[in-house]
């Protein structure tokens, strides 16, 4: 990962701030008791983005090339696709 800073913070710090922000967004959605297919898929999308960020920055997979980067992506895409299909079919 890069050691360059932007506004005095390393990229991993910015990712952490983004993860906390996305967590608060999903918390707010839950507290407001929002529902429906669109909201459910939005929250699922946030979860998949957060999973990718954790894999890339905090598991160290962002700097890797090739096959080693795929397991986390596949692990996110397959369940995410199945859950999305289940939500759409249940509608």
TrEMBL record:
Cellular component GO terms held in the UniProt record: plasma membrane
Keywords assigned: Cell membrane, Membrane, Transmembrane, Transmembrane helix
Keyword set includes Protein transport: no
Main location: membrane
Matching Pfam families: COX4_pro (PF03626)
Membrane topology: Multi-pass membrane protein
Localization terms from the record: Cell membrane
Domain of life of the organism encoding this protein: Bacteria
TM segment ranges: 12-30, 36-58, 70-90
This protein's name: O-succinylhomoserine sulfhydrylase
Organism of derivation: Sedimenticola selenatireducens
